[in-house]
């Protein structure tokens, strides 16, 4: 096994500490290394993973039968904890970190550009990841003494760029992880040229309201949670056709919030996958070889602009504003897209731009000023070249007039070997 870790921005003068972890080895060894991180860096112990044996046994059988790559990693996790992987008293299929209460929604804006539309003849997945900069206590408005609250890390303060090179099954990949070191994939690219991204389904969350089915503690569900779905696709799928079949046949549940996905391959194909609010109907929206945009509303309910709500820009309608802003910029562009064009498009729906637009209306300016979310990173995946670029939110300055200026990192670039 060969392991290398780099750290970018140490968090002392920036919001994030970003780890780039590269692992060459078997899936068992990859799982063992990730468990070592959870133990040494985040204080995990076997007691943290105790679970109901009825569900643990069924989950083990599911992974062994349907996702043996992940089960090999779980075996590595068990070895690091000194446990028997067949012990039904422990669920080692996830390694959550910086996370002890439910998550808020992930507000994101993603565009896939097929090769026929870009100056380099490469396909690109361009993604803004919007999330809170607060601690879990702040996010969930949990009253805590200052001395306790000040010791809590920001939920998103320590993302990992995971670069895995498995030797015994599964595609090589580069992906950005948070929440779960083992399978907390938020966006990524594999060596076959398949790119994936996840976004919260805010429409389903609003419709479900108090009936949202969070898994507080060990899940009483069998299958893949919303982030594991992304890791499964990167491990096992080379094309969008394979990914469609996988999404339609795997068993899914959400640990925290309903989500939907965009998937693209280097042949120029893309699609959006959504579950209905009641999770009783599956929807696939094909990109038809054109740029495909997705934010945080259900595209199957609002497939065209005339089916989207009109009116003032609010926090409740901002997903539609971001979608329409991107769609308009793409349709008004009369030339092939350069990578600078792709980055500029996503800047226009950055959370700071949303603040500016909302602040133009005095009724919403104060609301925008109190929002804790930021565009924590912009990802740009080149599906042909097998490269990934990331620019991170580092800090900001609040000016006397209430406006804000972001400090963002230069793009970090990584290439699958």
What does this protein look like?
By secondary structure, the protein is an alpha+beta fold. The protein has helices spanning 27-42, 53-66, 68-81, 136-139, 146-149, 202-208, 226-236, 240-249, 318-332, 339-347, 351-359, 362-369, and strands spanning 2-10, 17-25, 107-113, 124-132, 160-166, 173-177, 185-190, 195-200, 259-264, 270-275, 282-286, 292-294, 373-382, 387-398, 404-408, 412-415. The protein has twelve helices and 16 strands. The chain has a nine-stranded mixed sheet. Strands 3, 4, 12, 13, 14, 15 and 16 form a seven-stranded antiparallel sheet that branches. Helix 1 crosses helix 3 (68-81), helix 2 crosses helix 3 (68-81) and helix 11 (351-359) packs antiparallel against helix 12 (362-369). The two termini are 16 Å apart. The model has no long low-confidence stretch (mean pLDDT 92).
Characteristics:
417 residues; 12 helices; nine-stranded mixed β-sheet; seven-stranded antiparallel β-sheet; alpha+beta
Topology:
Elements (H helix, E strand, L loop, with lengths): L1 E9 L6 E9 L1 H16 L10 H14 L1 H14 L25 E7 L10 E9 L3 H4 L6 H4 L10 E7 L6 E5 L7 E6 L4 E6 L1 H7 L17 H11 L3 H10 L9 E6 L5 E6 L6 E5 L5 E3 L23 H15 L6 H9 L3 H9 L2 H8 L3 E10 L4 E12 L5 E5 L3 E4 L2
Radius of gyration: 21 Å
What is the rounded distance between the termini? 16 Å
Instruction: Give the DSSP E fraction (strand runs of 2 or more residues).
Output: 25-35%
Helical element count?
12
Low-confidence stretches: none
Average pLDDT over all residues: 92
**Number of DSSP E strands:** 16
Which of globular, elongated, flat, extended, rod-shaped describes the shape? Answer: globular
Category by helix and strand content: alpha+beta
Helix share of residues? 25-40%
Please describe the biggest sheet, giving its number of strands, its sense, and whether it closes into a barrel: 9 strands, mixed
Succession of helices and strands: EEHHHEEHHEEEEHHHEEEEHHHHEEEE
Biggest sheet, strands in spatial order? Answer: 1-2-5-6-7-8-9-10-11
């Amino acid at each position: 096994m060969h392991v290398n870790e780099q750290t970018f921005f140490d968090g002392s003068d920036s919001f994030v500490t970003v780890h780039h972890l590269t692992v060459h080895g078997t899936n068992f060894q990859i799982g063992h290394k990730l468990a070592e991180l959870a133990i040494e860096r985040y204080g995990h112990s076997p007691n943290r993973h105790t679970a109901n044996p009825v569900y643990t046994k069924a989950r083990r059988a599911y992974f062994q039968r349907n996702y043996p790559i992940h089960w090999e990693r779980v075996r590595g996790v068990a070895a690091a904890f000194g446990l028997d992987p067949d012990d039904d008293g422990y669920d080692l299929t996830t390694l959550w970190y910086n996370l002890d209460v439910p998550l808020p929604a992930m507000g994101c804006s993603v565009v896939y550009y097929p090769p026929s539309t870009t100056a380099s003849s490469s396909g690109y997945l361009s993604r803004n990841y919007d999330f809170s900069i607060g601690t879990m206590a702040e996010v969930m408005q949990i009253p805590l003494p200052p001395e306790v609250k000040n010791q809590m890390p920001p939920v998103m303060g320590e993302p990992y760029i995971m670069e895995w090179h498995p030797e015994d099954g599964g595609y090589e990949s580069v992906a950005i992880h948070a929440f779960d070191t083992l399978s907390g994939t938020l966006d990524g690219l594999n060596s076959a040229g398949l790119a994936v991204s996840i976004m919260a389904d805010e429409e389903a969350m609003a419709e479900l309201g108090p009936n949202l089915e969070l898994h507080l503690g060990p899940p009483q569900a069998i299958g893949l949670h919303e982030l594991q779905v992304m890791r499964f696709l990167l491990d096992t799928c080379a094309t969008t056709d394979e990914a469609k079949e996988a999404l339609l046949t795997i068993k899914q549940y959400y640990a925290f919030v309903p989500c939907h996905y965009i998937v693209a391959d280097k042949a120029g194909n893309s699609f959006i996958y959504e579950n209905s609010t009641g999770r009783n109907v599956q929807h696939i929206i094909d990109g038809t070889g054109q740029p495909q945009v997705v934010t945080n509303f259900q595209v199957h309910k609002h497939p065209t602009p005339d089916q989207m709500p009109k009116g003032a820009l609010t926090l409740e309608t901002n997903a539609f504003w971001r979608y329409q802003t991107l769609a308009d910029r793409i349709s008004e562009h009369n030339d092939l897209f350069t990578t600078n064009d792709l980055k500029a498009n996503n800047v226009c729906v950055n959370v700071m731009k949303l603040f500016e637009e909302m602040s133009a209306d005095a009724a919403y300016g104060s609301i925008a000023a109190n929002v804790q979310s930021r565009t924590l990173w912009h990802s740009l995946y080149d599906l042909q070249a097998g490269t990934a670029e990331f620019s991170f939110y580092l800090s900001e300055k609040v000016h006397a007039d209430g406006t804000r200026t972001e400090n963002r990192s230069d793009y970090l670039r990584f290439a699958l070997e």
